[in-house]
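A reminder from the course coordinator: this example appears on the midterm review sheet, so study it carefully.

Given structure:
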């Protein structure tokens, strides 16, 4: 309850600056302060060492409404924590490490939709191909071919997202604009070679920055590529961008899927 009141007070203070009597900030400034509020919330979770934040989960779900799918990033978290969110209705969970995902999957409910959101090595595709719901980080032709090869063996058509490099950090993975266009052209030119994969959209990670304008610009660049290459369809294409510290900005720029961990699960070991 102490943590709930602490975060609530911060949010109400920010909201008051924008909407209260004698408002000091304009509407454009609100996303910046909201982003700061989220970062403070993550710090508070770490400080209090809270394993699951049910209130934050419900708040995030309410804020997303029908705009974006929430993927709860459960890497390094035990099955008990995942089940706590599962009990609240959460079904989409994201993992970064193949071995951890392989260990968790058989011990948890079969209707969980497992997202692989880390950097996937080609030689490990075979371990998750029989059950993975969506692979977010396809960043090469060779990886896409391997996913097709392994999916063909198990008789599945596996959904994937192409990861685009939009950040200013060298530690991030992804295709540049030219590589993205070339890969999409190859898929279109030789569809039989990719019959067991379905490219559903794009994924990107913004720079870790305290500058909202910089983050917005990176998300906006990915949204332009998404609009260029993925027309409305059924099922709808997916634009996966936004994490705990910047998901509001991502949704404002058109994200249809966000990946949130720290805000929901607190400190990782």
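Designed residues:
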């Amino acid at each position: 309850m102490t943590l709930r009141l602490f975060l609530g007070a911060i949010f109400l203070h920010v909201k008051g600056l924008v909407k209260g009597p004698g408002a000091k900030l304009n509407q454009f400034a609100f996303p910046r302060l909201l982003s700061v509020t989220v970062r403070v919330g993550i710090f508070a979770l770490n400080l209090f060492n809270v394993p699951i934040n049910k209130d934050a989960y419900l708040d995030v779900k309410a804020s997303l409404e029908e705009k974006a799918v929430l993927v709860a990033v459960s890497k390094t978290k035990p099955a008990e924590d995942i089940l706590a969110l599962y009990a609240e209705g959460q079904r989409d969970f994201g993992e970064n490490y193949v071995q951890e995902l392989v260990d968790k999957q058989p011990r948890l409910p079969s209707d969980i939709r497992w997202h692989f959101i880390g950097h996937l090595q080609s030689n490990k595709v075979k371990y998750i191909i029989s059950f993975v719901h969506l692979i977010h980080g396809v960043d090469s032709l060779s990886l896409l071919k391997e996913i097709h090869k392994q999916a063909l063996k198990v008789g599945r058509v596996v959904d994937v997202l192409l990861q685009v490099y939009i950040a200013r950090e060298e530690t991030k993975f992804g295709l540049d604009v030219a590589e993205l266009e070339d890969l999409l052209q190859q898929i279109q030119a030789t569809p039989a070679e990719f019959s067991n994969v379905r490219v559903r959209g794009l994924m990107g990670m913004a720079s870790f920055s305290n500058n909202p304008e910089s983050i917005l610009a990176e998300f906006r660049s990915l949204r332009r590529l998404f609009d260029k290459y993925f027309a409305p369809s059924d099922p709808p294409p997916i634009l996966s961008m936004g994490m705990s510290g910047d998901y509001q900005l991502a949704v404002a720029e058109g994200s249809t899927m966000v990946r949130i961990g720290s805000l929901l699960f607190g400190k990782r070991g």
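Residues 1-28, 42-50 have pLDDT under 50 and may be disordered. Residues 30-48 form the longest helix (19 residues).
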